[in-house]
Amino acid sequence: MPEALSSRERMRRACLGERVDRPPVWLMRQAGRYLPEYREIRQRVGFLELCRDPDLAAEVSLQPHRRFGVDAVVIFSDILLPLAGLGLALDFRPGPIVENPIAGPADLARLEGSVAEAIAPTCEAIRRAKRALGPDVPVLGFAGAPWTLAAYASETRLSRDLDRLTSLAWREPAFVERLLERMATIAAETLRAQIEAGADVLQIFDTWAGVLAPSRFRRFAGHALAQTIAALPRERPPLVVYARGAGHLLEDLARLGADVVSIDWRTDLGDAAERVGVRVSLQGNLDPAALGAPEDEIRAEVSRMLDLGRKARGHVANLGHGVLQHTPIDGVRAFVEAVQGTARA
Ligand code: CP3
């Protein structure tokens, strides 16, 4: 067993299915409102303003690493930031609101402008975070998947179960395919810029893929995801694809060309490992709400998760979705320590 891997090497190996000393651990939305030091900054600065300030974005990205020693630092930004730079009037109250949604083919022309410029602050935040962390801690960059970006872009406020986009895909499939094609280039440009800035790992969030039946996923979301991945350089950092509520799409997700599939808590990690085999590593998948449980229960859940994770080619310990706003800090600490084996008995 290799000893004393750096977090960066541990993360790389787990993603590619090579041997590790223990699984790496980080949490989706690890920088956020459950942290008092984040709330303190947010009292002074709006959310988009924070995303667009490289110093503050780097600082907020580093907060969870300082507090918990997680094995990866996800850069503080938002999947919708590129769209905000492309003529979409985007605001967060606190969920995303788009005042001028892309409702039909004529609106597509509005998605003009430079993605690289829109996310330049994020790329600068990556550089600053990397400078502060040194070579041993990986910085994770990310983008929204085409389907999830299209979901937010196509209506002012997301409808329940994504009724609007899923209906549109039946009524006007050619338009939805064009919209997804555009979003696929936006996602790929976002990731390419972050690779150039030095991102060590990449994640694509397809939060809304799970509403689709497998055949619809393949035609729309999956097709566009594969386009995004194909547009990345051949030599690229390890790539994770996250989809929420997508247990029924697992085999499809494993065939996209990503290195890791990130699953939510509704899918059994052991079953998932059997289904994907050695094709991909797995990331996840504790229920975010479980971090509110007594700490010995969190440790027991982590132990169960790690046991199941051993069946996978490689395992990156994480939650099944982002940290919830009212999560106790001690619950997050217990989760990280339990994975890292430093939990007190
Ligand atoms: O993970 C991290 O710590 C990095 C930062 C990050 C944020 N959003 C910060 C954020 C990441 C990786 C995202 C991704 C994201 N953004 C997704 C995909 C992952 C997921 O959660 O499913 C989606 C769908 C979005 C769009 C988005 N941004 C929504 C739906 C919301 C509102 C939700 C909420 O919690 O209120 C946001 C706002 C947002 N993005 C916040 C944070 C910390 C809360 C903003 C605040 O401080 O008020």
Give every kind of bound small molecule, once each: coproporphyrinogen III
Helix content: 40-55%
Largest sheet: 7 strands, parallel
Shape: globular
Estimated share of beta-strand residues: 5-15%
Label this structure with key terms.
345 residues, alpha/beta, 7-stranded parallel β-sheet, two-stranded antiparallel sheet, globular, binds coproporphyrinogen III
Tell me what the structure shows.
- This protein has 345 residues and is α/β, with parallel strands linked by helices.
- It is built from 15 helices and 9 strands.
- It has helices at 7-16, 36-44, 47-51, 54-68, 81-84, 115-118, 120-133, 146-153, 163-171, 173-197, 214-230, 250-254, 269-276, 295-309, 329-340, and strands spanning 73-74, 90-92, 96-98, 139-144, 201-206, 239-243, 260-262, 281-286, 315-319.
- The strands form 2 sheets. Strands 1-4-5-6-7-8-9 form a 7-stranded parallel beta sheet, sandwiched between helices.
- Strand 5, helix 11 (214-230) and strand 6 (239-243) form a beta-alpha-beta unit.
- Helix 10 runs parallel beside helix 11.
- Residues 28-33, 42, 47, 74, 76-80, 92, 94-96, 142, 205, 207, 322 line the site of coproporphyrinogen III.
